[in-house]
Amino acid sequence: MNLTCKQTPFLHWLPDECFYSLCSRQHFFWCNQSPEETLNSLFGNSVKSFTHDFPKNLNLLNKYAKSMWGTPEDIICEHTIAAIFFPFQSPENVHALKQALSGPRLSSFKYRFGLVTGRFGGAHPLKACVECMTADRSVYGTAYWHLSHQFPGVTTCPMHGRLLMESKENRQWSRGFQWLLPDEPALVATCQPAVSPSTLTALHAMSNSAVTLSKLGITNQFDLSTVAQMYKEAVSNLGAPQKWREASADCFAQYCSLLQPFPPFSALPSSRRCAIEFISQMTRKPRGYCHPLKHLTLISWLFGSLESFVDAYQQLKKQSKISGAGNIQALSLSQIIEVQLSKITRKTGTPRPKKIFSDLKEKILDALITGTSQKEVCSRFDISISTVNRLLRMNPIAEQQIINKLFLKKREKQRNAWDTLVDQTPNSSANIIKRLAPNVYAWLYRNDRSWLLSKTGSLPSGRGGNYVTVDWDARDENLCTLIKKVLIEFPTDSKIRKRDLYQLVPNLFSSLEKRSHYPKTRRLLSEIA
After folding, report:
1. Beta strand ranges found along 207-320 (DSSP E)
2. Residues in a beta bridge with 189
3. Which of 114, 304, 455, 478 is deepest in the core (most CB within 10 A)?
């Protein structure tokens, strides 16, 4: 193959175009027959794979392409989704990611940037807006992938406000990688249910914030300690007492419920307890591997918009440089947050006593020993939790009695829970019951192991042996029935493809990996193809 004729000309960037889109347009411009041919022309024969969200080996990019498209750092910052992960990372981590994308391996950056632990998912499907595609074809002669559509958290088009559609290609279940441009038949809607106006408004605001955050990440990084302190102060402005804390958590969970039906927001908290844990995690000492969508969700709820948060942050940093004193900095933080948030009347409790007399101490200890919770004791005697803890430290014998009583109560509860599961699932093995209540098993194993082993010893072993008892023919028939049902429901005016079946029958792809089974299903698929 003569590569000389394919080194020039190279196409120019279109407005808001991502790097994968430009490479795809170059592939069709060259009229190459295979994705590997374009990959070799752009990066050389040593590069064997490519991903559309985090492209690697940018240092190996053709020198003629570099002269037209820019340096690897320019491409990473301005034409990939990497920039959205920069603002809440240290400069060292940002530099490491740029080096990883320029080289052959991404190493552990997906963990450090929250893609593994953030519960927002590491898959970033290609997305497109139908109205943008129509406008692009009329202006530029072709539709292309807009970078502003590809960022995680962007579910609506920033320009037209309508929900984006996802590509069925270049997915885990679509097999081989290929260069492609947006096309209506290859796009699917991200959700089926009707979208309420309030949900659409929340999604659009989140999408705009994600695009704005990516632009900030090119030149700025936030100080995570300052960010965590701003979150903490903003939450405290909603009210300090416990009932205000619970009300705030309910409000945050309700806000998250607007976003939850849409990937990648399905892991956001949906209950008061989960919301409290989420807020507590974000207001503690910051961690570098936090996904940026966690920050954006909390910022949107607390500050209304990313711009308001950035204004408050910049004013705080400016004020801290002028003051140079810790107390003044803390005071200015409270004042700045108050400006950004709506003013809420805060209830102040009655002053608590500084000293507790002997008769009151005895009543408090007696209540604790009898099993009254610390929360109820604080409410009954009008004292703080720190006072209770201090009183217990000064009376170690009473504290040990309370600990023993709580342990026995907890042990009885866990034992009853285990016995109930055994009664409800007769003939089940210990492993099956363990999976039904892993927290109960873990507590008993750590704190009451002898009792647990005596109980599990009398249960069935649960060993099923090999797969001799599996009725593979019945499974084959069931899978064929599912495929035929899908064929009946599929529109008759369009031809069904194998990747359509993989999407409509979720377990089809994994089942066919067992090459020695499912002969009827394989014959049926060959007839369809």
Report:
1. none
2. 165
3. 114
Q: What is the pLDDT of residue 470?
A: 74
The answer, yes or no, to whether residue 353 has pLDDT greater than 70, is no
DSSP letter for 352, please.
Answer: P
Cβ proximity of 518 and 477 under 8 Å:
no
Name the nearest CA neighbour of 249 among 281, 276, 280, 283.
276
CB-based contact 18:147 (threshold 8 Å): yes
Is the pLDDT at 332 greater than 50? The verdict is no
Q: Which helix (H) or strand (E) holds 376?
A: helix 374-381
Backbone angles phi, psi at 187, to 5 degrees: -110, 145
| pLDDT digit string, tens, across residues 150-164 | 999 999 999 998 899
- pLDDT tens readout for residues 86-103: 998 888 888 888 888 888
**Sheet of 127-128, strand order:** 127-128, 165-167, 187-189
Does pTM surpass 0.85? no
Q: Which long-range contacts (CB under 8 A, 24 or more apart) does 250-255 make?
A: 250/275, 251/301, 252/278, 252/279, 252/298, 252/301, 255/202, 255/300, 255/301
Place of tokens 């970033």: 124
